[in-house]
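Sync notes, pocket subgroup
Present: LS, DG
LS reminded everyone that the earlier model was apo-only. Rerun requested with heme C included. Inputs:
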Amino acid sequence: MRKQILAYLMLLGAVFLLGTGTAKYSYDDFESPDDCGACHQQIQQEWAQSLMAQSFTHEWDAIEYFKLALPHALKEPKVAGVKEGCIGCHGPLAFLTGDIPPQPPEKGTRVNEGVSCEICHNIIGSTEPVPFNFSYIIQPDEVKQGPRKDSESEYHQTAYSSFLVSPELCATCHDEQSPYGAWVKSTYREWKAGPYAEEGTRCQDCHMHHYPGTSALGGQERPDIAHHVFHGSHHENKLRGALDLALYLESDTVARKKELELTVQVFNGKAGHSIPSGSAEERMVWLEVSVTDAKGRQYPLAVSPKGFDGEEFTIADPEALAYQAMGEIMEIADFKGLPRDGDVPAGSRIFRKPFFDPQGRMTICQWYTENNTRVDYRVGPRETKIERFRWAVPEDVPVGEARVTVRIYYSQVPSSVGRYMKLPPFEYKPLLVNENSMALQIR
Ligand code: HEC
Ligand code: HEC
Ligand code: HEC
Ligand code: HEC
Ligand code: HEC
């Protein structure tokens, strides 16, 4: 009981401190992941390969913060808060110590540790009933919050935390509201509204699979140690096959000069949230469908429009320009914008959720997003999207066997933005999620 009262008082204190923005710790209040790695060797190595270990040093993060968000925060009062807001999730150590803005990654300060062991394992709750925007309550001390009630270490104390093992822990950083009130990240809220929450399948179950082993030097042999991979879309093994692709042809034989309808079904059977999720402002998943004739000539097909509101944003158009706010922030004269869909071939169906700035232009600046509810054409958890394509068979196609191929790709950032911001090409290259094909006889 005394312990509970004490915890409650500390919680109130933390709420108060966070609320008034005076929560100032020093970097020395947090041990480095290398310290933890002395005993938790495997966990440390797993975590070090994850994006959360690179949440501040990852090229695109640093470029977006230092070239776009920070300069914007310094001149546009409405978004002034992102100067420290980005850091609340991407560089929690700097946020908690008041080191704002932090030094860039090349300076090698401790902000580079990113979302480290000491962040997650010292979080005891959130100030919000449904967490978002780095609303974690943190208590850096000797007690490490863990998933077990029988864990003992001579080096530190341990406590079982129902918050640590809950998806609400993840929600503190994986859901985000912009200064304009738009939900610009909603992975937790997508999960909560979908089938997995009801079934009790947590974020941890898919992103921290369990394996038999020990978690520490001197730790107990256990059947279910939590892996710290946190693989997401940046790990091709996680992405590959995340969407199933089924292909149906109206008929497997077609005559020249006739028309053929093909149907593609896209099924999200693996992710507990929409695909894409997370940084939806810049993610694209698209379908490329083509027929290859007996002589190897290719005929790319355009998706048949369905006629829903905002559909124009979901069909690749090489002429469409967007992202004008980037040019304004960087003060580039006569900036007309960049190709909205990067290199996605014309007519491809794009599964995405476009974000719009206060002037109604599509944007990749999630902090400068006023509205993103116009159209959400992503594939929800266990949802199937049906797309139709028509092929008007040309007169000169050789008779014989042709092949219909469908491929679905994913990209983190539109290639137009990636090139303009000089990101390393791996940040925007198309990643193959799945493919399928069928034979077609031409008469
Ligand atoms: C000197 C060795 C040592 C060091 C250094 C160490 N730990 Fe541990 N830790 C252990 C042992 C042993 C256990 C118990 C493992 C078991 O129960 O099987 C443990 C358990 C844990 C648990 C699980 C607690 C639970 O209740 O489930 C967490 C979380 C944890 N450590 C985090 C950390 C963090 C974070 C650091 C760095 C700040 C760290 N440890 C440094 C030895 C160490
Ligand atoms: C993003 C948050 C996060 C980070 C960062 C993180 N952990 Fe964990 N850790 C968790 C969660 C959540 C669990 C419990 C998983 C579950 O419930 O299945 C856990 C479990 C553990 C356990 C107990 C393993 C077991 O199954 O007994 C240890 C030990 C541990 N973490 C150590 C570390 C160390 C050391 C680091 C840094 C190298 C680290 N963690 C980084 C969230 C995190
Ligand atoms: C303190 C903030 C914070 C917490 C808590 C947190 N995350 Fe993250 N997470 C981030 C940030 C920031 C990134 C983005 C890193 C980047 O792209 O640079 C990220 C990235 C990820 C990715 C990588 C996605 C990819 O594209 O590969 C996964 C998966 C992930 N987190 C899962 C989780 C899970 C599961 C939990 C809860 C157990 C969790 N996170 C808790 C901040 C957090
Ligand atoms: C049923 C398994 C499952 C559950 C539950 C689940 N995920 Fe995922 N997650 C995946 C798969 C598979 C991917 C890879 C496909 C993708 O990137 O969308 C993924 C991708 C991600 C990404 C990268 C998204 C992107 O497009 O950049 C993040 C971040 C993430 N998950 C976080 C979470 C969080 C936070 C939760 C809990 C609220 C969660 N996941 C629940 C399976 C799951
Ligand atoms: C509420 C927490 C939170 C805040 C605030 C936040 N981010 Fe993030 N950020 C994340 C998470 C979580 C991811 C990973 C999502 C995913 O994998 O799709 C991420 C991903 C990113 C990415 C990587 C996208 C990619 O292609 O891999 C960039 C760049 C980024 N954030 C920049 C920023 C900037 C700049 C700000 C401030 C304007 C900011 N973030 C504010 C949590 C946050």
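DG: Residues 60-61, 64-65, 69, 82, 85-86, 88-90, 133-134, 173-174, 176, 232, 278-279, 282, 367, 412-413 surround heme C (ligand 5) (CB under 6 Å).
LS: The first strand starts at residue 123 and ends at 126.
Action: DG to write up.
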